[in-house]
Amino acid sequence: MKLRQSAFPILTVIAALLVVWYGATIKMNSTWTYDQAARAGTEPSFSEVVSDTMQQSRPLLPAPHQVVSELWKTTVEKKITSKRSLVYQGIITLKTTLWGFTLGIFIGVSLAAIIVLSRVGRLSLMPWAIISQTIPIVALAPMIVILSNAAGAGTLLVPKAIIAAYLSFFPVMVSMVKGLSSPDHMQLDLLRTYGARPNAVFWKLRVPASMPYFFASLKVSVAAAFVGAVVGELSTSAIAGLGARMLIGSQFGEPMIMWAALFAAAILAGLLIFTVGGVEKILRRAMGGRAV
Amino acid sequence: MTDLTTSEAERPAMQKPVIDVSGVDLTFQTNDGPIHALKDVNLEINKGDFVSFIGPSGCGKTTLLRCIAGLETPTGGTLTVNGLSPNEARKARSYGYVFQAAGLYPWRTIGGNVKLPLEIMGFSKEEQIRRVRKVLELVDLEGFEKKYPWQLSGGMQQRASIARALAFDADILLMDEPFGALDEIVRDHLNEQVLKLWARTEKTIAFVTHSIPEAVYLSTKIVVMSPRPGRITDIIESPLPKERPLDIRDSAEFIEIAHRVRDGLRAGHEG
Amino acid sequence: MTDLTTSEAERPAMQKPVIDVSGVDLTFQTNDGPIHALKDVNLEINKGDFVSFIGPSGCGKTTLLRCIAGLETPTGGTLTVNGLSPNEARKARSYGYVFQAAGLYPWRTIGGNVKLPLEIMGFSKEEQIRRVRKVLELVDLEGFEKKYPWQLSGGMQQRASIARALAFDADILLMDEPFGALDEIVRDHLNEQVLKLWARTEKTIAFVTHSIPEAVYLSTKIVVMSPRPGRITDIIESPLPKERPLDIRDSAEFIEIAHRVRDGLRAGHEG
Amino acid sequence: ADDVTLQLKWVTQAQFAGYYVALEKGLYEAEDLNVTIKPGGPDVAPVQVLLGGGADVMVDWMPSALAARENGAPVVNIAQPYKSSGMMLTCLKESGVTSPEDFAGSTLGVWFYGNEYPFLSWMSKLGIATDGSEGGVNVLKQGFNVDPLLQKQAACISTMTYNEYWQVIDAGISPDELVTFKYEDQGVATLEDGLYVLEDSLTDDAFKDKMARFVKASMAGWTWAAENPEEAAEIVLEYDETGAQTEKHQIRMMGEVAKLIEGSTGALDIADYDRTVASLLSGGSDPVITKTPEGAYTTEITDMMMK
Amino acid sequence: MNRSDTQFERIAYPVGFGLLVLLLWEISVRVFGISPALLPAPSAIGAAIAGSVPILWGDWVQTVIKGAMNGLWMGGIAGVALALVIDRFAFLKQGLMPVANFFAALPIVGLAPIMVMWFGFDWHSKAAVVAIMVFFPMLVNTLGGLAATDSMQRDLMRTYSAGHIATLLKLRIPAALPFVFNGLKIATSLALIGAIVAEYFGSPIRGMGFRITTEMGRLATDMVWAEIFISALTGTALYGLVALIEKRVTFWHPSQRG
Ligand SMILES: Nc1ncnc2c1ncn2[C@@H]1O[C@H](COP(=O)(O)OP(=O)(O)OP(=O)(O)O)[C@@H](O)[C@H]1O
Ligand SMILES: Nc1ncnc2c1ncn2[C@@H]1O[C@H](COP(=O)(O)OP(=O)(O)OP(=O)(O)O)[C@@H](O)[C@H]1O
Ligand SMILES: Cc1ncc(C[n+]2csc(CCO)c2C)c(N)n1
Ligand SMILES: [Mg+2]
Ligand SMILES: [Mg+2]
């Protein structure tokens, strides 16, 4: 809504960033230019150096227009069904993300319900949920692949989704624990005066009271699922997806492929968060929340 | 008064008190040590009584109401409601409780909020709709059924919460400062409404307030309480007739009772 | 009244009103459309006046106080404080504002909260200590200096927030329902205290309340307001003497003013 | 048809062209096999996949296979399509390293993940410490690319003749600015890219028969790939799911890989095996394997295949 | 539900749960004969930890002290500082926040190879990855915290006609602290993960990430799990430390009063 209002500041900041970026491109890539010149025994002029830093094929830092043109080449100029299209690869990552996200929501909500409804659950699960997030998932990734392989999962989608879910269940769980326990004493006592059973308390009070918390956690959670999907692709087995492309780009000395995949990932993550935010707004309104 | 429970059986059934509080003690254990919230509270409330509780902040008014509703368990003494324990009475759905704040569920419309107890108690769909309409009319909230709580003013919210407590026709109404945040004019209006309802339905009402005129205007019995430890210092039976126009408040009788209440209150503050 | 600003210069300096509100209009733009919170408000408050504002919820009492304090900018009309704009007056630190809720900073002790304005205004360390002690005494909170807000009861918190507003000796005290959540006895006590303070210091006080007796008891001038749009419907000059014992409230004069206020209020409700 | 799952050591590239060709050209089908090829990745140890039942047969380097065997993962070499080693150390001339004597004190990039064994045994043969102590080399765990050399963070890095070496060249450094030490030339070559299965599975005759057919078809694939490097590279590209590989690079890789395949029938040359084991055992204080492995290979499969 | 948990219960239950999981793990490894190359038994992990203390210590210093801690303080300070600057200038807030949100959406692991390329294979590149990972949660939380004062609290400052600095010091920073600590809690676990992941893309021959990858290649999974254990222990300890400081510093916040 306020987009028009803030368009100018955003553009200014982007312009400033571009200037810094171009400056850094020249500075960082010129080392290589000078090295090459020294190997060739020539002495390049400053303008030659500048123009060279803008078009290296293995730059330390590619110039913005290089990234944009690579993005253009691999999205618009490629058929969506082509493996070389970032859209195609993005959809693979997206699929993993959504499975992981769904699984994460399910796990997060279930754990939260156990934690809120049972004292033993709360005391024993909550600390371990926190500890689970301090374990470097990348170290577990291969084991997840192999174990899910051993358990008969045919595709890599399963282990990747598990990794994504591992990262995304936590924000949901934390928020839902807060949300499900957000009803105050009075709201709980009201139901007690009706002689309501625990079942009714859960569905008529705790669940609706937790909805704002639930929605608030979705954006964080989908971002986490996305990171999980990329990490999964990057570390389990570089077969397909944006994470795999980053890896292959890095492994085969094609930094432009890596940079393009990186930016595509950021754009995709941005879109995901935006979409989830939109869905959240719609649901919130449907539930009678204040239009904020 | 302590042998009241034994003598009870001998009385004719009609006069048996609806709420019988006898020797009730309640101590909260807190980090800072125990708080003696209620001490040796004795009180009988008969069917159709309108009892007001008045007393300084922290004297145990809310706590006593909660004990009656079975939301708090006394640490001593006995408390029966229609001969049952408060918990049993609660499970038998005897109470309509209006809390100190409106406490509407923000995710439900006004209609939905009023319907909540009906859903839980398993009324039929048509009955739910019928009753919601009826009680919303009673508190002058026709047409606001579809609105959400935050779209209403504070006073309207409080009226909705009263409607919610009335919806399922509980025998006993427990109202904890229901008009706390309202201005005098709205308050007067609601006082009249409550009196009307009470006169028509013969409900038993326990009512907490900070306002002396309100207590005197509404009640058949005024219970004055005093803090540290929370206890009853005076029980005043009102001689006012059941029919009470607003200007009864300028009558000599009224002013006299009000004086007695104020004195009781002041004594509590000093004590 | 619209040419009041022009005629002002001719008056003797002493009688120049401290707060001069003339033709003030304020419309809030909201998603649901504009809300006319204040409409053509005209009011003069002289040095040493004790002005009470009374009126139903949403009639613009808080908004008017905020305009005076320069926290809200009127969309029309002029408002001067000591001849300055409210913003300038605010920069000259003329205001002690007591908000509707206590609003103490939870990370500061009671003493620290009272000290806050003194730190900001650059009082010396010793002076800060001296003043904190003095005002805490004034509101009966000696010994609670080191406690944190949540360790105090609601009433004590409100008194602390009053102490905070008094600490730096502003000329103008703006108090927005400062005693809203207190029971009658404590309220009476604080009313007396405020009156004493006012009598001693000659401060100008603007005071919002829902209680008719409180308004009548405290004020030299009672402003009755009415909502939709928020406006002043009556300004009552009180003939009561400056010296006011509590039992002045039973005098015929008192009751008569109270009646006039109540009528004004009721008219506002109907209108 | 019999199902066979092959776990590769690394991502889809011409290094594994023979298998993809056999798959694409229907050579497996002709042997009544239904083959699935699983690419590897940085984090996935093929042995683990084998152990976990995710694959029947894997491509691995002999040093890491033998090390795994000693660590309780009983893998057995059943065939050895790669005859020679493609591993080498590539150094920038300007760093001053021209012979193994110059290594001391300089930083060398090494692959780990089980690929470090040939390097370690070479160093211990040279008597150079790798633990960072005085007079030794400074070892850097090299990532997946040649950046450490280009950024001059290392004097030398590990490269494969068919892959990373050409990345250095493509980056704009000419061959005469580089010094390379091929493990083959240094006499420390160890066997790469063999086919391994779990020991237990070899008790099953049906499995052995299946493997014989698999190796046979694979070798046919390799032969075809060596003869048609460009088409083979195309096939590999088609199987690359990331779509990030380039044609130029894969064709060149195929050409280089063909040189390493040359002379192999698929059967393990016992002399090569003994040389590898000797090299790994000679690791001084910290040998890769501590005792001569027993039953780490079988020629049974290739024998069956030859019939 | 009304009963509040005693200190003993708060420790005994999670520890008991952990021990139960370990026990089930040990039993199933033994009963099902799971190969140690796939999943080592807890007892084997314990033995690996006991037997390689010097190695684990060296790795810990390299990854936690040099990589994670350096990145943590750099990213943390940068995040808070930028938040204060952005907060001061509405223009920056409008312009920078959408852009910052875009970058925050980057899967930072993807930056690890780039950071290794830029800052070399030693701990500097790890610290850089960590700093970037930590930066955004700190920035976002601090900004959120600075905006978390209610309007009455701000109006009070206005009636005193307090300046920007006074308002910042006396109102907004104290009010922001619970949020900053929240950011810090997220940041500590991210810091460890970031430092470890970055080692996957090139490192010296010590460090927890290095050890995890190499030992994995060697099938020495007991050592891998030993590192995972140390990492989780460190992460939990850091989290606990932050929570402890938080309790001390924001004792006034309702969430700390129970
Ligand atoms: N759950 C509790 N735990 C500990 N102490 C409690 C609890 N509930 C109430 N108290 C204490 O019991 C005393 C009586 O409280 P109660 O709420 O009944 O007072 P009240 O008369 O309703 O006051 P008010 O007019 O302010 O509502 C107070 O001192 C209060 O602090
Ligand atoms: N910031 C705001 N934005 C939009 N509308 C506002 C705002 N502040 C107040 N209002 C509206 O202005 C009107 C006057 O509000 P104000 O708070 O001044 O009432 P009040 O007389 O103080 O009421 P109360 O007795 O309930 O405190 C109300 O209708 C309110 O909804
Ligand atoms: C995880 C992992 N990283 C690096 C290598 C090293 N390596 C050995 S062969 C080969 C393919 C040709 O480049 C590469 C990269 C590996 N095997 N596995
Ligand atoms: Mg109460
Ligand atoms: Mg107000």
From TrEMBL, chain A:
Listed GO biological process terms: transmembrane transport
Regions that span the bilayer: 7-24, 98-117, 129-151, 157-177, 220-244, 256-279
ABC transmembrane type-1 domain mapped to chain residues: 90-280
Membrane topology annotation: Multi-pass membrane protein
Keywords in alphabetical order: Cell membrane, Membrane, Transmembrane, Transmembrane helix, Transport
Coiled-coil regions listed: none
InterPro entries tied to this protein: MetI-like, MetI-like_sf
GO cellular component, one term: plasma membrane
Location in the cell: Cell membrane
Similarity-based family: Belongs to the binding-protein-dependent transport system permease family.
Annotated protein name in UniProt: Putative aliphatic sulfonates transport permease protein SsuC
Taxonomic source organism: Pacificibacter marinus
UniProtKB/TrEMBL annotation, chains B, C:
Family according to the record: Belongs to the ABC transporter superfamily.
UniProt KW keywords: ATP-binding, Hydrolase, Nucleotide-binding, Transport
Keyword Iron-sulfur among UniProt keywords: no
Enzyme Commission number(s): 3.6.3.36
PANTHER family: ALIPHATIC SULFONATES IMPORT ATP-BINDING PROTEIN SSUB (PTHR42788:SF13), TAURINE IMPORT ATP-BINDING PROTEIN-RELATED (PTHR42788)
Lineage: Bacteria, Pseudomonadati, Pseudomonadota, Alphaproteobacteria, Rhodobacterales
Ranges where the ABC transporter domain occurs: 21-252
Name of the protein described by the UniProt record: Taurine import ATP-binding protein TauB
InterPro entries cross-referenced by the UniProt entry: AAA+_ATPase, ABC_transporter-like_ATP-bd, ABC_transporter-like_CS, ABC_transporter_ATP-bind, P-loop_NTPase
Source organism (scientific name): Pacificibacter marinus
Gene encoding the protein: tauB
Pfam family membership, one: ABC_tran
4Fe-4S listed as a keyword: no
GO molecular function: ATP binding; ATP hydrolysis activity
UniProtKB/TrEMBL annotation, chain E:
Main location class: membrane
UniProt keywords, alphabetically: Cell membrane, Membrane, Transmembrane, Transmembrane helix, Transport
Iron-sulfur among keywords: no
Location relative to the cell: Cell membrane
InterPro entries noted in UniProt: MetI-like (IPR000515), MetI-like_sf (IPR035906)
Gene3D superfamilies membership: MetI-like
Record field: transmembrane: 12-32, 44-65, 71-90, 102-121, 127-148, 179-203, 223-245
Membrane topology label: Multi-pass membrane protein
Gene Ontology, cellular component aspect: plasma membrane
UniProt domain ABC transmembrane type-1: residue ranges: 76-250
Tagged with keyword Lipid biosynthesis: no
Listed GO biological process terms: transmembrane transport
PANTHER family (UniProt xref): ABC TRANSPORTER PERMEASE PROTEIN, ALKANE SULFONATE ABC TRANSPORTER-RELATED, MEMBRANE SUBUNIT
Protein name per the record: Putative aliphatic sulfonates transport permease protein SsuC
Organism this protein belongs to: Pacificibacter marinus
Gene behind the chain: ssuC_4
